[in-house]
Specification:
Blueprint lengths: L28 H11 L13 E3 L2 E3 L14 E3 L6 E3 L17 E3 L5 E3 L12 E2 L5 E2 L49 H4 L23 E2 L10 E2 L1 E2 L2 E2 L11 E5 L5 E6 L3 E2 L11 E2 L26 E5 L4 E6 L3 E6 L4 E7 L6 E6 L3 E6 L3 E6 L3 E6 L19 E5 L2 E5 L5 E5 L7 E4 L7 E6 L3 E7 L3 E7 L6 E6 L3 E6 L2 E6 L3 E6 L11 E5 L4 E6 L3 E6 L4 E6 L7 E5 L5 E5 L3 E6 L2 E6 L1
Antiparallel strand pairs: 1-2, 3-4, 5-6, 7-8, 9-10, 11-12, 13-14, 15-16, 17-43, 18-19, 19-20, 20-21, 22-23, 23-24, 25-26, 26-27, 27-28, 29-30, 30-31, 31-32, 33-34, 34-35, 35-36, 37-38, 38-39, 39-40, 41-42, 42-43
Length: about 575
């Protein structure tokens, strides 16, 4: 097998015993089992057998000083403050600091060590060598230095392949020793210091130490480290780092740390790195898996028209398979626009005025003057029997949550009633003033009403019952949408906000601003992950994480958008005049 001479050249070499077992290099099954437990891969401490800990993505034994560790292995600092572990045999050797785990450096003796400015930076019993690496005192020369690797020249016996009588280059003979000159050629040929050709317990089947390989087919050495992006785990495995930060990690596999702007690891293969252009790939436009039906330009998908309605939209609702739009005043037309683009279809028309619209998973509801709340099935598209609502409490804004309707009348008063019978109207909030109502939104636990009272006043009423709670007052109009227990607000010339009602608080927290934003909001939607919106004269559909950000991303261009119909699992549905369009989210 290939010898270890390249790691021990020079008069100061340490002769490290790389096994964690007995110094003689025991080959027992139990010893192998212990070594396997120590070096197995991990992410959490719980991945390791107790009391081992997970450090540098492998299981390690904790230590306080080097004498707690097997012979030849140092007690080194882990990434966590104060925690120290025994090196694994595969973590000792190095050609450069890049070869060492964590914050260790490659010492002048070709060994991974803790970096230090002074002895205070080192572990118990260690000292800071003059070259800036922690060491045991006995490792240092009289000048306080670690010995440096010196390739030297071969001695009288140090010729590669000069085996003794009966010996071979693979097994070594009495004449195949390193020689007195400290040279390494004889050892690289496959013999140890005594010339007996014994195998090293830490070498793999090819004769190379773990983490090293013979990639140049020169039997005299194991020259290639397998923790490089050009040889990650094997001689032929490369990690493509051309478009991002791609490394060969401590488990000797390629890992994408981060991609450069405009690129992504869309094939989920770390070896190919950040292989995909997110700027122009229609199958991965702006992000992996975001598919444009047309071209992708600058990471944006242009809006795709799916149908047109017969007039200016007055009210709208997003259903499971269709976008529902009401047009006309005095005589209304209810049109459904199938999401599959098969063409807009009128559902109903009547000589009456629609004042509000809402939808749930089964029906679309219109507040029709003179009739009440009229349901339409989303599956059969048939009109159901109207639910009567008195004219003095007739909805101006309508919402559905669970098994109940919630609505706001023109004075700002808020009512609720069961969906199957709208007659027992229950007041939730009192009137404010004539024509004070501005908007209504319902979350899973609260009704939010917006009224104008010398400013745009946002208040919340708990669905479970309780007092009306002030939330905020804005100086500009507000668009609202909800997801779960949160309401999202688009405040003109101020920005995007969110608020979650807390029933345990008598005074509600102020809304959280997610993004300062100028312009007029023409609508918002949310899927619980992002908030999607359009603004007047912007020409784009925007998306913002619900956690906020310094800017909103552009999903795609659209000419003169004037509303957001809603968002589903794949698409943001938007309108521009009579056209209904979709943009992949």
């Amino acid at each position: 097998m290939k010898a270890l001479g390249r790691w021990f050249r020079g008069a100061g070499a340490l002769g490290i015993a790389f096994g964690l077992v007995a110094a003689c290099g025991s080959d027992s099954t139990e010893d192998k089992r212990v070594l396997a437990e120590l070096s197995q891969g991990c992410v959490l401490n719980s991945d390791c057998k107790s009391p081992l800990v997970c450090v540098f993505r492998k299981c390690h034994e904790q230590c306080t000083e080097t004498r707690d560790c097997p012979d030849g292995l140092l007690c080194v600092a882990a990434d966590e403050d104060g925690l120290r572990v025994c090196q694994l045999p595969t973590e000792t050797k190095c050609y450069s600091t890049h070869d060492c785990p964590g914050k260790q450096v490659c010492g002048p003796d070709g060994r991974c060590r803790d970096f230090c400015d002074s002895t205070a930076d080192c572990g118990d019993g260690q000292t800071c060598a003059a070259q800036g690496a922690c060491a045991e005192p006995e490792e240092l020369d009289p000048e306080g230095k670690l010995p440096e690797i010196d390739a030297g020249t071969g001695g009288s016996g140090g010729v590669a392949g000069s085996a003794g009588s009966g010996g071979t280059a693979a097994t070594g003979g009495a004449g195949g020793t390193a020689g007195s000159g400290g040279g390494s050629a004889g050892m690289d040929a496959g013999v140890d210091a005594s010339g007996d050709g014994s195998a090293d317990a830490n070498a793999d089947a090819s004769g190379c130490l773990a983490g090293m390989a013979d990639c140049d087919s020169n039997p005299a050495d194991c020259e290639t480290a397998l923790n490089q992006i050009t040889s990650c785990g094997s001689c032929t495995t490369t990690c493509d780092a051309s478009n991002g930060n791609v490394i060969c990690n401590s488990s000797l596999v390629c890992e994408v740390v981060a991609c450069n702007s405009g690129f992504g690891n869309c094939d989920a293969n770390a070896g190919t790195g950040c292989e995909t252009s997110l700027v122009s790939d229609a199958a991965n436009c702006g992000e992996c898996g975001r598919v444009c039906n047309g071209t992708c330009s600058n990471g944006q998908c242009p809006a795709e028209s799916v149908g047109m309605v017969p007039g200016t939209p007055q009210f709208h609702a997003l259903g499971k398979s269709d976008v529902f739009v009401v047009t006309g005043s005095g005589t209304y037309v209810l049109t459904r626009v199938p999401k599959d683009g098969s063409g807009a279809t009128p559902m109903d028309t009547d000589t009456a005025t629609v004042t509000a619209m809402a939808a749930d998973g089964k029906s679309v509801y219109l507040a029709v003057s003179g009739s009440g709340i009229v349901p339409y099935s989303q599956s059969t598209y048939q009109k159901g029997a109207p639910l009567s609502v008195p004219a003095n409490v007739f909805p101006k804004y309508l919402a559905v949550q669970g098994s109940a309707f919630y609505w706001e009348v023109s004075t700002g008063a808020v009512y609720t009633a069961p969906k199957d019978d709208a007659s027992p109207q229950l007041p939730l909030a009192p009137s404010v003033a004539t024509n004070a109502a501005r908007a209504l939104a319902v979350t899973s636990n609260a009704v939010y009403r917006l009224t104008y009272q010398s400013g745009y006043v946002l208040e919340a009423i708990p669905i479970a019952g309780g007092a009306l709670a002030p939330v905020a007052t804005f100086t500009a109009p507000v668009a609202m949408t909800t997801w779960g227990d949160t309401v999202y607000l688009g405040v003109n010339n101020q920005g995007v906000y969110r608020h979650t009602f807390d029933p345990k608080k008598t005074t509600q927290d102020a809304p959280t601003q997610l993004l300062p934003q100028t312009g007029t909001f023409y609508g918002l939607a949310s899927d619980g992950v992002d908030v999607q919106f359009v603004r007047a004269s912007s020409g784009f559909v925007y998306s913002l994480p619900v956690t906020g950000g310094s800017s909103a991303s552009i999903l795609g261009p659209i000419s003169n958008p004037d509303r957001v119909y809603g968002v589903d699992g794949q698409w943001v549905w938007v309108g521009a005049s009579t056209t209904v369009s979709k943009v992949p989210k």
